[in-house]
Every structure is written in structure tokens, then in C-alpha cells.
Amino acid sequence: MMDRLVSNNDLGKLLIRLSVGGLMLFHGVNKLQHGYGFVEQMLLKAHLPGYLSHGILLGELLAPLFIVLGIFTRPAALIEAFVMVMAVYLVHTGQLYSLGDHGAYALEVQAFYLFGSLAIFFFGAGRYSFSRGGGFWN
Asked: Of the candidates 5, 56, 77, 127, which lies 20 to 30 Å from 65 by C-alpha distance?
């Protein structure tokens, strides 16, 4: 009994999906409520098309929701990882080799989302999901 509880890979997949996807949803809801026009300005400053800012809705709302629910989990995780790469590139490049005020890596939150999303991509959704872990994309 205890062995099944401790060796429950599907429960571990659920917990990482809820953490990475659920916490990212707060960022997306905030941008939906307060606007994300500042992202367009950052893209233009980086000589990228401003219309790419609408990808925020995909990467911080839809993809995290799919990750939490376990629907098209692998592509959603890749989208979220890409959003984090872009966030680091557009906003945090100067902090790549920095520590925060308390000695932690300055980009630990961004690293959590990036590497957590990549882990979800490789692990898949697991049985505790709407897809029940079936299919190539889950």
C-alpha cells in the first residue's frame, strides 16, 4: 500500500502540472485584466513584430489552462517554455548571471516555469488528467 502511494508517477505529474500551469495562469489573468500593451513595446524595441504580443494570451492563459487540465499537454508545455525564453530575452537578459537580494538566482521564477514546462513536455499529462494520459500530445 505505502509503496503504491510513494511510487505514484501520475500523482507527481499532476502536482507539477498544477504548479507550473496553475501559477502561470495568475500572470495571464493579470495581463488580461490590466492589459499587455507593454509587451508590444518590448517586442518593437527588440526589432520584433509588435503583433506577437497577442501570443501572451496563448502562452499565459490558454497553454497553462491546457497544462492544468491535461489537454494537449505537450504542445501547451512547449508554448509556455517558449514564452519564458522570450520573457528572459526581452526583460531579464541582464539578470542571467545575477543573484537576488537573498542569495537566490535572480531568475529562479523564470527558470522554474521554463524547466518545469520542459519537464511536463517530456513527462506528459499522466492518468490524472482529462486526456487520461492517452495520445501522443498528452
From this structure: 5
**Nearest CA among 116, 137, 122, 138 for reference residue 22:** 116
Phi, psi dihedrals of residue 90, rounded to the nearest 5° = -80, -30
pTM here is 0.89
Helices in the chain by DSSP H: which ranges? Answer: 2-6, 9-34, 37-45, 55-57, 63-69, 73-87, 108-123
Q: Which residues pair with 37 in a beta bridge?
A: none
Q: Judge whether residue 70 has pLDDT over 70.
A: yes
Number of residues assigned to the chain: 138
Cα 109 from Cα 120, distance rounded (Å): 16
Burial, 105: exposed, middle or buried (Cβ in 10 Å; 0-12, 13-18, 19+)?
middle
